[in-house]
Amino acid sequence: MKQEVYNSIETWFNSYVEGFENENEKDNIILKRDHSFRVVKLTKELGEKLDLSDSDILLIQCIALLHDLGRFKQLVNYGTFSDTDEINHIQLGLATLTEHDVLAELNEEERNIVLECITYHHEPVLPKNINSLALPLIQVLRDADTIDILHIVSNYYLNNKIGTNKRLEMELSDKPDVSKKVYQSIMDEKQVAFKNILTINDLKLYQMSLIYDLNFKISFKIISEKTYLKQIFETLPKKDLVIDMYRQMKIFLENQL
Fold it and tell me: Closest by alpha carbon to 231, among 213, 257, 212, 249?
């Protein structure tokens, strides 16, 4: 991929996002736009650390820029960040890429990689038959996405009252409960299944459990240095089972360094 192709796609992206900046959802539109650009920056940082080629780094930056494209329509048209079969940000994003012919300047192999990475970037488990050329790029994308999600939510939980942003809270209830299935997943060192999230506390623990899906040592190092897990833990009730889960995740993280 060439720099001028990336620049062209970035210009289109900025113009597209500007069309969604209405009064009601402006803050969350900006939040998702800024998230996309931070993930672009992180994929470049990770790609360079992993010695990816310049062309692959540009390609993964393009994928990072477009990975959450469907979130803008999902937010403005449907008022949510919560995926359902009917309102799925990945399918909305893929449809938008086709509608606007965004990938026209890429060759066929590059287009296929971009589409495959976007398709599977949010899946709990990657399919075994994923394109071998796409695999290292989607792993970089998923790590970068997780790092910035933890950046966003740790900052939000520490600095805002619950109820400030219902979209980020996925419209969940602020109850003190923690799901037993959430507890079991974390103690088994598995990413929490989103279907098992019932409360905001469950959501926080799910977000912390994303570390179980990281692929690269550099990603663990960044998350450890930024103390994202500790910051989120500080906003959780200090029940024994919550302390146990935090300890389990902390030990797992430290063992990857």
Answer: 249
How many residues appear in the chain?
257
Query: Right CATH number for 3-140 from 1.10.3210, 1.10.10, 3.40.470, 3.10.20?
Result: 1.10.3210
The residue ranges of every structural domain in the chain are: 3-140, 172-255
Task: Find out whether 253 and 241 touch, Cβ atoms under 8 Å.
Answer: no
User: How far apart are alpha carbons 169 and 206 in whole angstroms?
Assistant: 12
Asked if pLDDT for residue 217 goes beyond 90, the answer is: yes
CA torsion angle 202 257 141 81 (round to 10): 10
Percent of residues, the chain, with pLDDT higher than 90: 92
Please give the single-letter amino acid code of residue 182.
V
The helix/strand count (H/E) of the chain reads as 12, 0
| Phi then psi dihedrals of residue 203, to 5 deg | -60, -45
| C-alpha pair distances (Å), 210 with each of 144, 203, 204, 223 | 11, 11, 10, 11
**pTM score, whole prediction:** 0.96
Q: Which two tokens stand for residue 2?
A: 């060439």
Label residue 23 by pLDDT band (50, 70, 90). Answer: low
Phi, psi of 80 (to 5 degrees): -155, 160
